[in-house]
# Entry
Amino acid sequence: MGTQLTKQPSELLTIAIDAMGGDSGPSVTVPAVLDVLAEQTDVRFILVGQQDIVAPLWQQQHSPYADRLSIHHTTQVVAMGERAQDALRKKKDSSMRVALDLVKAGVAHACVSAGNTGALMATARFVLKTIPGIDRPAILSRIPAHHGHTHMLDLGANADCTAQNLLQFAMMGSVVAADLDGVQRPRIGLLNIGEEDIKGNELVQEAGKLLQQSTLNYQGFVEGNDIFSGEVDVVVTDGFTGNVALKTMEGLASMLGSTLRSEYTRTPWRRLSALASISVLKAVKKRFDPRQHNGASMVGLKGVVIKSHGSADAYSFAHAIRVAIVEARKGVPTQLGQLLEAQV
# Structure
């Protein structure tokens, strides 16, 4: 088992890292932490995982960040394909579980993991519990859009939802968008098959009425293309629809990228054209690089939990860490609780 949990000095923001999570584990998580340590001097990290694997990648004796980086040894790892129930019941000393325990104990202000999404959600909900007034946590992520990005939730945590759930998701999205983007009153849209009031099933119709009665900046129904239009800051939907939409976006982005590479390398003349437009291509690639948007928030919990993509590289995982830092500094769970109280 890991060492005893002790609270850290209050002047430093502390982030617990599930060092073993993801497809690559410590070979990605440790370099990402070192990169963020180099740029942010008021943050410290606890690398949670198997010390014999994590420590050699850190090289403590040569690290200038020894006072802001520590290892919390654990004996177990949650596999990427492991059932959530098994992880919850049988892996109490896993890097994922202990990282969440550190948040629960007040040792860390946030947790970042690239591990098994189902196991992370189930364990986080068990350990941290939900904010009073929130029935179910949701997964929120940023989607590239004309105005920068749109916050969208739920992206897979809740396949079946009630209208009240969707209202709560809207509240969560409003708080996160305001904190991450500095928007005073984020514009909320409810995903539907049309913008007209008569469109949609019973669920979205009922949720739309609840949103109209709320104090949120509700704009009405939006369609799939509005996710990218910049007309709203937050798009709300159930987890089934949201996850299908997200995977469709990822598949389309991958196809467009491979198509561009194929077409630009088809003939010598096209290769020259590619060289002539290299600056534009690089700008487009950077703007739509999924690594720039890595770090999904598991909102609705009594603590900040950020889910990184399992295949993230160090650059991408570092971005997820930065999301956790912002949410922890802003106190997203506390703000969400205050918003819920204001709705009563």
Notes: The chain has a mean pLDDT of 88. Residues 239-264 form the longest helix (26 residues). DSSP finds 13 helices and eleven strands in the chain. Residues 142 and 151 are 5 Å apart (CA to CA).
